[in-house]
Amino acid sequence: MSDDNKHILMETGTFIHSAIQEDLKGRLNALHTRFPPEPGGFLHIGNAKAVYINFELAKIYGGTYNLRMDDTNPAIEKAEFVQAIQDDIRWLGYDLDGRLFFASNYFDKLYECAVTLIKKGLAFVCDLTAEEMRASFGGIDKAGTDSPYRNRSIEENLDLFTRMKNGEFPDGAKTLRAKLDMASPNMNMRDPVMYRITRQTHSNTGDKWCIYPMYDFAHPLQDAIEGITHSLCSIEFEEHRPIYEWYISHLDFPIKPRQIEFAKMSISNTIMGKRHIRALIAEGKYDGWDDPRLVTLSGMRRRGYLPASIREFLGNTGVSKALSRVDFGMLEYFVREHLAPVSKVVMAVLNPLKVIIENYPEGEVEMLTLPFHGDNEALGCREVPFSREIYIEREDFMETPGKKFFRLAPGKEVRLKGAYYVTCTGIVKDTAGNIVEVRCTYDPETKSGSGVELRKVKGTLHWVSAKHAVPIKAMLYDMAVLDAPDAPDGIIDNPDSLIVMPNALGEPCLADATMDDRFQFMRNGYFCLDNKHEGLVFNRTVSLKSSYKKS
Fold first, then answer.
1. Residue 140 to residue 374: CA distance in whole angstroms
2. What is the DSSP letter of 299?
């Protein structure tokens, strides 16, 4: 087991472990799990929890895991999503090892299973419309009523189902339903639909089929076909477990999968519903499934999250039957923990204000050798040019500062990181009264900390040389939404989810940044190159500050 996975989820006393251990001592010789996403969108952090549980448990018990595309709904499925799901799972750290499967590859077998159930008198073709069928289901406190077509003969049902497959009826004209119990207190057991007629070109099977299986019918049979031993799924499928077991019990498979449910993961200030995300993208609120404000895996990858951070976060959230809500700050905590030791610490000024050091020789340039990381020598050093004209953050200067402002102000002295102490001697304003330039003097005896025993300063500023600075664009990302209990959906848009700094300036070394690099922009947060836009566009992965405290 890897170090980042030795957490709550993996403790062997959990109910999932207990069930697996019980089965391995009795009916099974090996564990076989699966993750069956519908390729109707990109994976998000909630899906990652399911991936983590299924794949890690298989690894712990020396078993096998499958990735199976549940492509039974051609109306919303795309090849783009199929590829993105594979990319995300590999990025998360799981080698598929050739174990990629598609539900559509089992359509012939699923059809044969449906025919078997008809022959056993356990399925019938129904002519009720969708509205009529809904009305016949009754309610929680009211039993449903049998379809008037429920008692068709086996021969008639076989004939009608064959003709459904052959395309003799229009879309929606007939369905194939399981014959269970219309008085069951579990609504899922009231003669559920197994097949519907819908003419949709499928990305894998083309136009071969005009009937498609429903999820509750297809899912357990796909598990059984693949030899899955444990169907680990989220808690909303608990009420579907009886129908899962019913289909398995009435068909002949050597392995009878066991369904075990766990609570979905909910995270504050996030959007995870794929329908909701799809609608927001269509409205233009986000620039795609990989928008860094979203908690899709592709969005988090683009934002600069490391997969190890996500795995450790998932491991620490635990697994239970009870719904719980995780603080978004917990995710950010683990992102910082993994970025801190591997990020190159550099200087970048996001909102530049020019500073002229009046007593520094004009035209002179000093090259300062600074380490990329104080504790990680393997990251090496870089050369940083220092000159008479530099830029600092605009927020690091105040004309009339308060008592607790320890940065640059008229008459105040500060340290320039890795360079000299400077003292503000004056300012220049434009016609509108805005400060456009700060004038300073420097003490040549204080280079790189020398002479500091003579006096102390409380403020240290990052800076860049005006002549040598590299123009960059900084994208400051934050949570997409804010929790708002009084709002209709419980959330509101975060107006500060993206702040663009188009005129930022960085050290010359940033011109050579690669997609693999991670940076800490001094005092501004952790950044990485954007993988979607050309040029020096840097995304803020996470700020430096955190309110989350790990227990």
1. 64
2. H
CB atoms within 10 A of CB 144: 19
pLDDT digits (tens, 9 = 90+) for 486-534: 888 888 999 999 999 999 999 999 999 999 999 999 999 999 999 998 8
Contact between residue 200 and residue 188 where contact means Cβ atoms under 8 Å apart: no
Phi, psi (5° rounding) for residue 8?
-50, -45
Q: How many angstroms from the chain centroid is the CA of residue 506?
A: 29
CB 175 within 8 A of CB 210: no
Check residue 491 and give left, alpha or beta (phi > 0: left; psi -120 to 50: alpha): beta
**Which amino acid would we find at residue 81?**
F
Distance CA 104, CA 206 (A): 10
The DSSP secondary-structure symbol of 150 reads T
Measured CA to CA, the distance from residue 285 to residue 50 in angstroms comes to 27
CA 20 to CA 22: how far, in whole Å? 5
Distance set, CA 233 to CA 152, 259, 348 (Å) = 36, 7, 45
Most confident of 19-23, 212-216, 403-407: 212-216
The DSSP result for 205-261, as a single string, is TBTS-SEEE-HHHHHHHHHHHHT-SEEEEEGGGGGGHHHHHHHHHTS--SS--EEEE
Please write the tens of the pLDDT for every residue from 154-179: 999 999 999 999 999 999 999 999 99
Q: Are 177 and 211 in contact (CB under 8 A)?
A: no
Contact 145, 132 (CB under 8 A): no
Asked if residue 229 lies in contact with residue 33, where contact means CB atoms within 8 angstroms, the answer is yes
Its pTM stands at 0.90
Question: Contact 115/250 with Cβ under 8 angstroms?
Answer: no
The residues that bridge with 357 in the sheet, in sequence order, are 440
Q: What residues form DSSP beta bridges with 344?
A: 519
Rounded to 5°, the CA angle 431-435-436 comes to 85
The C-alpha atoms of residue 243 and residue 189 are separated, in whole angstroms, by 6
Q: State phi, psi for 218 to the nearest 5 degrees.
A: -70, -40
| pLDDT tens per residue across span 102-152 | 999 999 999 999 999 999 999 999 999 999 999 999 998 999 999 999 999
Query: Which residues make Cβ contacts (< 8 Å) with residue 371, sequence separation at least 6?
Result: 377, 379, 380, 381
Residue of 537, 475, 533 whose CA lies nearest to 500: 475
Assess whether pLDDT exceeds 60 at residue 6. no
DSSP string, 174-201: -EEEE---TT-SSGGGSS-EEEEE----
Q: Give backbone dihedrals phi and psi of 400, rounded to 5 degrees, phi first.
A: -125, 85
Q: Are 71 and 213 in contact (CB under 8 A)?
A: no
CA angle 369, 373, 376 (to 5 degrees): 120
Q: Alpha-carbon distance 509 to 379, whole Å? A: 13
Banded pLDDT at 457 (limits 50, 70, 90): confident
pLDDT (mean) for 368-386: 96
